[in-house]
Amino acid sequence: MSRVCELTGKKAMVGNNVSHAMNKTKRTFGANLIKKRFYIPEEDKWVTLKVATSTLKTINRIGISAVLKEARAKGFYK
Question: Which residues, 6+ apart, have CB-to-CB distance to 50 below 8 Å?
Fold first, then answer.
């Protein structure tokens, strides 16, 4: 399974390592992902999702139901 947030679609970005001599080599900035279980009261079940920590902050602020509804509208979560 790839390292992509299942609710927002966040994934790795590409950038440069820059040395003191200003030499540039390619590198990746990985998404800050965690595996977390959520309880969805509307469906009365637990789901395990791989989410970015920034998405976790959003879930804490507006709730898992609202985030899932938005993710389904964007096509990230089935």
Answer: 1, 3, 4, 5, 6, 33, 34, 35, 36
